[in-house]
């Protein structure tokens, strides 16, 4: 098991760093605020710039606008952008949906969507959760009724990230009215969010930002050719996508948290309380050391999963392990970081009294949701227990 990077891969890392220096990440207009997960803010302008470089699609097949590069190149790109807090949030779902289209899409879907996703021309989101289903995708009630060469969708989705800023959505709906079988009767659709009958309502969060949305579907007509994968066999598509999603969405955590930790260390070295540096306080020093160890463990675990993906091995429980650890680190940095800094850490962004630009206060507001989005920690632990440790179900 080799975690090292080749000379060419390290050269690419330097290319990314040069790009970041040429285009400072704080100079771009953002439409979605930084939630502290490590993907930074969301900027359509920055997304198109990455697309112009060919970096969004660089691991895809050449016939669909990619460069057929190893997955480590994507990881290096994400790692450096995360460390420098680049506004790459819109890439997250573009990567996952693009990957699903490559694996399960028709030739027409690949030629239609992949070049536009790769160029940053369109932004995707995913709509799975529903008000009465929560994490239980088997309880999906959004109905898709077939009428000749199209489906008519009716229902409601909730907690859809960035739907109000996206162009298309990968959506799960029931294509069989009855629920006699949990494993069949659901299909995944590629839906244009500008379609008549779609209403998107943002949900303000505790940070006073609009990240999540409700989507209402009232007689929305979707061409039958927009089904991704086989009709009534959408769950395998979704589960496969979610497993990789959990890895890639959290794979940026080690790099992003390393930057957070460096900022905290610098602050504690430069700031005094009662005439002594904060860094000389034994409790604060222990806290920072614990964070450093957790970040390094997460980095090595991420490299292991990256290696496994490079060997074309399917993930089973590894992504859940990373998600649990990464979300724990994110919440720890927010909690313990503010504890170290004190009152100034709680002052929000835009205030001259804020410490570290108010970043930790913003992160703290988002952090409770880390262990909920993408599947709760309880669900992840069940996956680790059943698939990883082979423990029997109670």
Description:
This protein has helices spanning 7-22, 44-52, 71-83, 91-104, 107-118, 234-250, 253-270, 282-310, 318-341, 359-366, 377-388; strands spanning 124-127, 143-147, 150-161, 168-174, 186-192, 198-204, 210-223, 227-228, 272-273, 276-277. With 394 residues, it is an alpha+beta fold. It folds into 3 domains: 7-122, Acyl-CoA dehydrogenase/oxidase, N-terminal domain (Butyryl-Coa Dehydrogenase, subunit A, domain 1, Orthogonal Bundle); 126-232, Beta Barrel (Butyryl-CoA Dehydrogenase, subunit A, domain 2), CATH 2.40.110.10; 251-388, Butyryl-CoA Dehydrogenase, subunit A, domain 3. The strands form 3 sheets. It has a 4-stranded mixed beta sheet with strand order 1-4-5-8. It starts with 6 loop residues before the first helix and ends in a 6-residue tail after the last helix. 44% of the residues are buried.
Write the topology of this structure.
Layout lengths: L6 H16 L21 H9 L18 H13 L7 H14 L2 H12 L5 E4 L15 E5 L2 E12 L6 E7 L11 E7 L5 E7 L5 E14 L3 E2 L5 H17 L2 H18 L1 E2 L2 E2 L4 H29 L7 H24 L17 H8 L10 H12 L6
Parallel strand pairs: 1-4
Antiparallel strand pairs: 2-3, 3-7, 4-5, 5-8, 6-7, 9-10
């Amino acid at each position: 098991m080799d975690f090292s990077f080749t000379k060419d891969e390290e050269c690419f890392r330097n290319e990314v760093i040069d790009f970041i220096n040429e285009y400072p990440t704080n100079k771009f207009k953002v439409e979605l605020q930084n939630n502290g997960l490590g993907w930074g803010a969301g900027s359509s302008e920055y997304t198109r710039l990455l697309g112009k470089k060919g970096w969004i699609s660089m691991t895809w097949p050449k016939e669909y606008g990619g460069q057929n590069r190893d997955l480590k190149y994507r990881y290096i790109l994400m790692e450096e952008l995360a460390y420098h807090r680049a506004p790459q949030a819109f890439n997250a779902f573009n990567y996952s949906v693009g990957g699903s289209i490559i694996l399960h899409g028709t030739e027409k879907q690949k030629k239609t969507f992949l070049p536009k996703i790769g160029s940053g021309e369109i932004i995707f989101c995913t709509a799975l959760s529903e008000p009465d289903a929560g994490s239980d995708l088997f309880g999906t009630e959004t109905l898709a009724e077939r009428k000749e060469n199209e489906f008519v969708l009716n229902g409601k989705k909730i907690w859809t990230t960035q739907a109000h800023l996206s162009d298309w959505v990968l959506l799960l709906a029931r294509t069989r009215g009855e629920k006699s079988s949990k494993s069949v009767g659901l299909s995944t659709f590629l839906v244009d969010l500008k379609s008549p009958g779609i209403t998107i309502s943002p949900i303000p969060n505790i940070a006073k930002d609009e990240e999540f949305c409700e989507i209402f579907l009232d007689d929305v007509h979707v061409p039958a050719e927009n089904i991704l994968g086989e009709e009534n066999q959408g769950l395998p598509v979704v589960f496969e996508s979610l497993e990789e999603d959990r890895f890639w969405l959290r794979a940026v955590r080690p790099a992003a948290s390393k930057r957070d930790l460096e900022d905290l260390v610098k602050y504690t070295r430069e700031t005094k309380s009662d005439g002594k540096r904060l860094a000389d306080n034994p409790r604060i020093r222990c806290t920072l050391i614990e964070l450093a160890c957790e970040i390094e463990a997460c980095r090595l675990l991420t490299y292991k999963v990256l290696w496994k993906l490079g060997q074309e091995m399917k993930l089973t429980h590894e992504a859940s392990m990373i998600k649990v650890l990464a979300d724990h680190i994110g919440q720890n940095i927010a909690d313990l970081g503010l504890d170290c800094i004190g009152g100034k850490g709680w002052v929000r962004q835009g205030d001259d009294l804020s410490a570290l630009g108010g970043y930790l206060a913003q992160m703290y507001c988002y952090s409770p949701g880390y262990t909920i989005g993408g599947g709760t920690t309880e669900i992840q632990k069940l996956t680790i227990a059943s698939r990883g440790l082979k423990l029997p179900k109670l």
